[in-house]
Write a structure and sequence with these properties.
This protein is mainly α. The chain contains four helices and no strands.
Length: 79
C-alpha cells in the first residue's frame, strides 16, 4: 500500500483526474489512520491541495488578465 501511495505522489495528477477517479477520497480515508501509510497519504494530500491552489491562482490570474485586456480595449476603441 505504501508503495502505491508513493507512486501517486510521483504521478502528474490533475484536479480533473482526481474528480473523475475518486482516488482523492480513497487516499483521504487512509490519511486518517496512523503509521507510515497515513503519513504518506497526508503528504500526497498536501501536495494535491497545493496543486489545486496553484491551478486556481493561475485561473484567477488569467481571468484578471482577460478583464484588463477588455478594459483597455474598451478605453481605446470606444469614443
Amino acid at each position: 500500500m505504501l508503495r502505491c501511495i508513493e507512486k501517486l505522489y510521483q504521478l502528474p495528477v490533475t484536479v480533473q483526474l482526481l474528480q473523475d477517479t475518486g482516488v482523492g477520497r480513497t487516499v483521504n480515508a487512509l490519511r486518517k489512520g496512523e503509521g507510515e501509510i497515513a503519513l504518506a497519504a497526508r503528504t500526497v494530500i498536501g501536495k494535491w491541495k497545493q496543486m489545486v491552489a496553484d491551478e486556481e491562482e493561475a485561473l484567477e490570474n488569467q481571468h484578471a488578465g482577460n478583464n484588463l485586456c477588455l478594459i483597455y480595449y474598451k478605453m481605446f476603441t470606444i469614443r
